[in-house]
């Protein structure tokens, strides 16, 4: 029998999301999440689709190596372990692929070296991705391991949006440019949005708002990314859970010269202690909404700053695209936080976009429109599925040669 299963590993800075899929029909066999890796309160939540059983493990999981081994044990308990002959390949999300990787890539030692070299520009993500790759290779050295890069979808950006306004020779020497991230999600969601509209992706222009813990916006013109809000690293752009997003670069000089902070301290401040968390002490939108409902002013201001930045990017991408067919919300906040969607689109009637409050309040896992039928620009919620997209790309690469 030919092997048709693909295991997908999506390692975040402190989490590991995974899915095991049978690519004959892209059906899920198992899925789960390890959260708060490295803390005392780690949690593994595993679901076996076949039996419908969900199991939870609470207690410290030290790193991504331990997390993946715990996941492998859970899969083995369900009889669909990593030692199964049905397993064809393992697909890995890799956040930073630089200019080098524009396609899904079979991982060998030289690919690992290149991903390692990119750690300085994705310090929260590439190390976790590498640990996942190394552990998976050790568990199944015989299997093809495929890297699917967050940056790949954005390599179509024209130089006018990819370049910063600095000396190009200096920029090239240090490979300073805007790479963009969450590309697997932007690709999948923009395509699914076209499907929701009943159109071909090559016919539509879409603004995708990927609002998770990390958050980014992209302008997708006829299926190709022409601009995105993240840059050299995933720090630029929108206000995020713990990242500041855009600020005047002189803030950094000022904090160093006047505030006496070291570069490492500023790096940690902007990546891990800013954004919603820095503004109000919480990075979870559920908690922020709860505080706002109780009249908390600090949480309300954090929310307003988050929305203001989002609106600025929506406006900018209207101008970049010229014609917009849809604005689409995705990822944890985008899929679940109706007040964020309502506030971000409020006042855009002049630009043809509006949200119907009743449609906006519907919850669910399906892609859906939340704009009134009369709106010139559709507004939609399209759940992202980075794991499915990684599995599809992995299977397309490995299945071919099998
Ligand atoms: N029901 C909800 N309402 C509002 N926000 C939510 C809800 N569920 C999740 N979120 C937000 O989604 C975030 C996680 O999004 P996710 O896309 O899973 O992020 P990541 O992949 O970056 O870990 C949480 O931090 C929280 O702010
Ligand atoms: C690139 C990035 O920000 O990823 P995440 O949202 O998973 O942190
Ligand atoms: Mg994510």
From TrEMBL:
Output the lineage of the source organism. Answer: Bacteria, Bacillati, Actinomycetota, Actinomycetes, Kitasatosporales
Q: Which protein is depicted?
A: Acetate kinase
Quaternary structure note:
Homodimer.
Cell location:
Cytoplasm
Q: Which InterPro entries match?
A: Ac/propionate_kinase, Aliphatic_acid_kin_short-chain, Aliphatic_acid_kinase_CS, ATPase_NBD
Q: What cofactor does this one take?
A: Mg(2+); Mn(2+)
User: EC number(s) on record?
Assistant: 2.7.2.1
What is a GO molecular function of this protein?
kinase activity
Q: What does this protein do?
A: Catalyzes the formation of acetyl phosphate from acetate and ATP. Can also catalyze the reverse reaction.
Pfam family name, one: Acetate_kinase
Site (Transition state stabilizer) location in chain: 182, 243
Q: Which residues form the active site?
A: 150
Recorded catalytic reaction(s): these are:
acetate + ATP = acetyl phosphate + ADP
């Amino acid at each position: 029998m030919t092997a048709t299963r693909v295991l997908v590993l999506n390692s975040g800075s402190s989490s590991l999301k995974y899915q095991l899929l049978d690519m004959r029909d892209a059906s899920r066999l198992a899925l789960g999440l390890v959260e708060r890796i490295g803390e005392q309160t780690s949690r593994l939540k595993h679901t076996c689709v076949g039996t419908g059983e969900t199991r939870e493990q609470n207690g410290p999981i030290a790193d991504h190596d331990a997390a993946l081994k715990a996941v492998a044990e859970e899969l083995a308990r369900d009889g669909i372990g990593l030692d199964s002959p049905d397993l064809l390949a393992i697909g890995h999300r890799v956040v930073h692929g630089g200019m080098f990787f524009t396609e899904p890539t079979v991982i060998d030692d030289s690919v690992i070296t290149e991903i390692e070299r990119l750690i300085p520009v994705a310090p929260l993500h590439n190390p976790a991705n590498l640990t996942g790759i190394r552990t998976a290779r050790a568990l199944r050295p015989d299997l093809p391991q495929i890297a699917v890069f967050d940056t790949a979808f954005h390599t179509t950006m024209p130089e006018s949006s990819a370049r910063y306004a600095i000396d190009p020779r200096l920029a090239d020497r240090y490979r300073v440019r805007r790479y963009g991230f969450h590309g697997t999600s932007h690709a999948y969601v923009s395509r699914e949005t076209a499907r929701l509209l009943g159109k071909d992706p090559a016919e539509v222009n879409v603004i995708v708002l990927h609002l998770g813990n990390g958050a980014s916006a992209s302008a997708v013109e006829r299926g190709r990314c022409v601009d995105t809000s993240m840059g050299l690293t995933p720090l630029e752009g929108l206000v995020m859970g713990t990242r500041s997003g855009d600020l005047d670069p002189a803030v950094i000089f000022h904090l160093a010269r006047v505030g006496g902070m070291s570069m490492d301290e500023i790096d940690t401040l902007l990546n891990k202690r800013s954004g919603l968390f820095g503004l109000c002490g919480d990075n979870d939108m559920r908690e922020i909404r709860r505080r706002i409902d109780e009249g908390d002013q600090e949480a309300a201001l954090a929310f307003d700053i988050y929305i203001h930045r989002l609106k600025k990017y929506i406006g900018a991408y209207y101008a970049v695209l010229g014609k917009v067919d849809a604005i689409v919300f995705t990822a944890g906040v985008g899929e679940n936080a109706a007040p964020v969607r309502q506030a971000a689109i409020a006042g855009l009637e002049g630009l043809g976009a509006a949200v119907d409050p009743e449609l906006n309040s519907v919850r669910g896992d399906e892609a859906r429109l939340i704009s009134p039928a009369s709106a010139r620009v559709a507004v939609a919620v399209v759940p992202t599925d980075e794991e499915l997209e990684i599995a599809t790309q992995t299977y397309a690469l490995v299945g071919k040669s099998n």
